[in-house]
Amino acid sequence: MGHLQKWDCTVLISKLMKAGLVRSGAKTNEGEVNIDKGTFLTETTFTEFEPSDVEFVKRVKAHDDRLTSICYVENPRCVATCGFDCKVYLWNTDLVRLGQLIIGGDVCWKLNLDKDERKNEDKQEAADLVEELEDADYE
Fold first, then answer.
1. What span, in angstroms and rounded, lies between the C-alpha atoms of 99 and 81?
2. For residue 48, which phi and psi values (nearest 5 degrees)?
3. Chunked in runs of 10, what are the mean pLDDT values of the chain (139 residues)?
4. Do residues 2 and 51 make contact, with C-beta atoms less than 8 angstroms apart?
5. At 21, is the secondary structure helix, strand, or coil?
6. Closest Cα to residue 67, out of 51, 86, 95?
7. What does the radius of gyration of the chain's CA atoms come to, in whole angstroms?
């Protein structure tokens, strides 16, 4: 049986941010996490954490068989899963199923895409590229 679980890691992330191991919008520095000892260790920092720093929120049955892959999608904020049951599902961050990929079928997805945000990101990327090209030295 394939299940999805949601955990609240707010306290742990806060501890890691205070230790300088995580910055807002950045990935963690490489380090060693030892859950049994409750430690997060990098070359320069040692941080202790408690089991209560990570709180279980919710568990749902996601697939009829084991999951083979999970992917977080940033825009829109959702999670895609696939499993040995040969199904692909899309979930919101509260683990409510939004839709199922059916090959050869007509499926209505309960998914709101923010096309304006994507369009604005594309425009900004193009503007940054134009600025970079204008500043380039071609000699």
1. 11
2. -95, 145
3. 87 78 51 49 64 89 89 86 87 91 61 72 88 79
4. no
5. coil
6. 86
7. 21
